Amino acid sequence: MASTSASAPAAAATPPAAPAAAPGHDIADLKNKVYDESVRLTEEDTKVVFHQNDILDMEFMRGIDVNTLLAIINELLKAKLYKVVQDADGMGWKTRTREEAKRYSTLTPEQEMVYSHIDESGAEGIWIRTVKMRSKLHDSVVNVALKQLESKSLVTTIKSVEHPTRKMYIKSTIRPSERATGGPFYTDGELDEEFVDMMKRYLVKYISEKSFYRSSTLLKNANKTIKMSAEEAKRARNNGLGPRRQAQPVDNARAARIRNYESMVPMPHGYAGYPGVHEMTAMIEDRNVTNTTLTAAEIQQLLDVLCFDDLIERVEGGKEGFSYRALRKSLLDDEEGGSVLTEMPCGRCPVFDLCEEGGPVAPSSCIYYNDWLEL
Amino acid sequence: MSRSQNAVELCALLVDETYGELTSRIFTILLRRGKLPISEISRHTRLGPKATRNGLAVLIQQNLVYYHTGKAGPTFYEANDGAAYALARSGKVIEFVESRYGVFARDVVQNLFLFGHTKVSDLAEAYASQQKQAAKGKSNGHPAANGVNGHTNGNIGSGAHMDGLLVELLELGLIEPVVQRMFRNPADIKDELEADITTNEIAGGSIKGSSKKKEQLQGILDERLKRIEAEDREWRSKVLKRPLNGVLTNGVNGASKKRRLSHSGSSIGDHNYEDDGTRLDPNLVIRINHEKCAVLLRNAQLVEAVKNKLGDTTSQIYAELLKHLEKKIPRCAHGTTEDEYQDRPLVSTRDVATSLSKSVNVSLGIGKTIGEGPKSGELAGPKLGSPPVNRKRKAGDLEGSGSENGDDPPINGNGNNHEVDQDGDDVFADADAVKSPKRPKVTFQDKLPEPEGLHSREDRIYHIKEHMALLADDQYGFVTREADGQGAWSVNFQKVIQKIQEAEIDKLVLELFGAAGHRLVRMLRQLGKLDEKHLKDTTLMKQKDIRTKLAEMQLSGWVDIQEVPKDASRGANNNRVIFLWFFDNERCSSLVLDHTYKSMSRLLHRLNVERRRAKSVLELTHRSDVRDKPPDEYLMPAQLNELHAFQDREDMLLGQLGRLDEIVGIFKDY
């Protein structure tokens, strides 16, 4: 009922009912008073449930007997301004806004039952099967009711991220919750991997700009001592033997990258310039990186993923207590710095488990070895 | 060594590769069947008694087989798989020795590898005879001998040089004197001692059920083992004509004797093993100490890791630090207890600074902060708190004041706002506080690198301290600061190796399963057992992708799943079961290790196949009449091509073998 109070401006404007004994027991008047008072209380605490005694304790209800109360409540229920709830203290009532009440009053009893379940589920939405189960109505009745409600545009279907296969309904007046939509990283109930990747790349770039120092001396020195990786050595040898000059530009690009890598040195101990979550949240906002607003919690989520990807690490220190720094290997490409085991065919052999001298797959006849040894 | 099938196969192949088929047959039987008396060995190998005895003699010589004669009954033989595996590592040890002690040392160590354990006099003789051969023009040319063929191109070879070198190696622990104990399985010795202690020293005989007695037993046992070991390692009494002090000084301040990588190489002349009167007892029997080799190779591995994580300069300083520690570490201990943690060897910043080669420019390799104002290291901005005067020098003579323990409060409080250092570690605070005053100078040097001589000693120590802080700061925890106030450092090897293991597993997973698998594995490692839903939220991946990836990894054993039923009924109702994914580091380590063993044995298999294929050419080169000539003199061009093709492949296979050995080291020995 989060929306109840927001959409009742009339009730909100009404000052608390003046204490006045109603001699004639004007039920219509009392009804309004009780309703206004309960709306006021609901505004204070949206979860409030009114029990019989709560209503009788209202100041203007002094001297009113239970039968009158019954009449009042019946009126309220008939007008759909009240709805019955059960809680630990027995039966009680909650308020509805006048607008909602108007909507309810146009519905058939079946529609009303279905609608009330959808209403209660709030921003989370409700699964169609749950509706059927709770209302104990026949499937077809529920389906008809839902169709009618949809045509009146009172309810809409949504896709929930948590239960992608379930058909969920939600009131059309409210926006589905983040739990249902999955937050800013989801589009139409699907994870937007492109977006996530883009944000991750952006963050890594930002962090690594603040994590390294480019040493000009090392940059110069690096020119002289560029180490060749196994692959590059292979390529160089191929160049020497086979077609020439083709791989040259690639090599240069790679050499430049290695040079760059070698010249990037870590910041000294105690360096306080590593960025923290809030700094990055503000940065993303300021630079208009994306239309979607990302909260600090969501940036944190991205940073955690980056930590798990082993591209950055969390360090103590910085203005926010914790900050993030890029790891050196984030400067390298994926292909570089692989494992020794996967350099050779056995490391990535799909039939390694079968490999046995004398078996169907054997080192002596291994085609992967042939390729590898021929270079 | 875990006796997996692959490990056994690899050991057998290694023995075969180095010592031939006879030995490997016996060795394999011993590996597969455990302890056997000689009659059983010859029965299983179907070898005659004479051949068996010959084979066993070779194996014992190489310490590949333990033997033990009980009080009554036959002698039992048992395979020493650790020593067999060490064969794969010999090349690396030789390389290490060459890079530090030069070509002459390499030859000596090579001979030691070839002979197994040997008397000093025999070693000298062998060297001398090799010299003669070399003089006659005999050179290498026996490709099967896996790096143990003698390149002898020097003319030093006198016993005195050899003794000097051997003393140095003994000092380091790379070679050790051989004693009777080494021919028995260490586990046997321990059992025997345990039995002895139980019967003789602990009242009551039986120790079952009494944890107190068990503790007591363990205590006595450890002490005795240590004592035995210490006795065994005692070799100094065998050094003749040289005072004990001299030996020690040689070990500690032998900075002049430190052979650097840059100097090693071409000529032996660089290494003057001057005849300083050192003589070893010619009857002393020595052998290579494989445990120590592992320590030395581990250091190389750690340095490599630092180089990748932090950069070249820092790694050079780390190498120096480890060099200081290596003498105090006899082996890569496993399962460190609390006490051992306490007595980890220390090294001080000053020691590192003293021995660090002057060719290392310590001012490089660390970024410069420009105050607190601009947050970027690259942008030039107003330099806060950087008076041009060198405050540190004013504060007093650095060496005298022992400034490593940061007793300089005025500097600490001179307005450098390094808020990170508020954690009360004043040593670090001091280091940082000093940073600003020095900055202008440092920046200048970065732009115009000057010869090393211009660096003052204080500057060097300051820079080295910075590098140390960086090492300590890293996630891997390469060094640990000791709280003795003297700027001492120690290294928690277990922890660092553990991190390197994890990194190695990560690399492998990244390559086998892509970024997604890598992310999942790292997450499961850090967060423990996780539900799929939770995984989805944290990884920002599609549930479908996660499930596929996890299933794929489960199939090959990298991750596993656990069912947790919500209630007692374990029916088909899936809603009532929680499925948790988890990652077991230990299991993956053994997976990687086994995979590596298997890969290594496949490499050796393939090498044999390649050798068979190139047999015709290889046989030609082995002919006695052409052995000493370079192959291009007598081979046809086609044959020469074939030979080169084979050599390329051999290099490739053996090279890869050596690299795989690093993985085995990381996961098992270090």
The N- to C-terminal Cα distance of chain B equals: 13 Å
Range of strand content of chain A: 5-15%
Decide which structural class fits the backbone of chain A.
mainly alpha
Q: Count up the helices of chain B.
A: 26
Number of beta strands of chain A:
11
Query: What's the average pLDDT of chain A?
Result: 76
- Parts with pLDDT < 50 across at least 5 consecutive residues of chain A: 1-23, 222-228, 240-249
The secondary structure category of chain B is mainly alpha
SSE ordering of chain A: HHHHHEEHHEHHEEHEEHEHHHEHHEEH
The whole-number mean of residue pLDDT values of chain B reads 72
Which bin fits the share of residues in helices of chain B?
55-70%
Number of helices of chain A: 17
Overall geometry of chain B comes to: globular
As for the number of domains of chain B, it is 5
Number of domains of chain A: 4
Low-pLDDT runs of chain B: 137-157, 241-275, 335-339, 371-454
Strand order of the largest sheet of chain A: 3-5-4
Oligomer: heterodimer
What would you say this structure looks like, in words?
The complex is a heterodimer of chains A (375) and B (670). Chain A is mostly helical and 375 residues long. Chain A folds into 4 domains: 2-96, Arc Repressor Mutant, subunit A (Orthogonal Bundle); 106-182, Winged helix-like DNA-binding domain superfamily/Winged helix DNA-binding domain (Arc Repressor Mutant, subunit A); 193-331, no CATH class; 341-374, no CATH class. Chain A is 47% helix and 11% strand. Chain A has helices at residues 2-6, 9-13, 27-44, 52-57, 66-78, 98-105, 109-121, 128-135, 139-151, 178-181, 193-209, 216-224, 230-241, 248-263, 277-286, 296-308, 367-374; strands at 82-87, 90-95, 126-127, 155-158, 168-171, 186-187, 190-191, 212-214, 264-266, 312-316, 322-326. Chain A has a 3-stranded antiparallel beta sheet. In chain A, strands 1-2 form a two-stranded antiparallel sheet. The radius of gyration of chain A is 34 Å and the shape is elongated. Chain B has 5 domains: 5-79, Arc Repressor Mutant, subunit A (Orthogonal Bundle); 84-288, no CATH class; 326-491, no CATH class; 510-583, Arc Repressor Mutant, subunit A (Orthogonal Bundle); 590-669. In chain B, α21 (493-527) packs across α24. Chain B is mainly α and 670 residues long. Chain B has 26 helices and 14 strands. Chain B is 58% helix and 7% strand. A 3-stranded antiparallel beta sheet of chain B has the order 1-3-2. A 3-stranded antiparallel beta sheet of chain B has the order 4-8-5. In chain B, strands 9-11-10 form a 3-stranded antiparallel beta sheet. Classes of the chains: A mainly alpha (375), B mainly alpha (670).
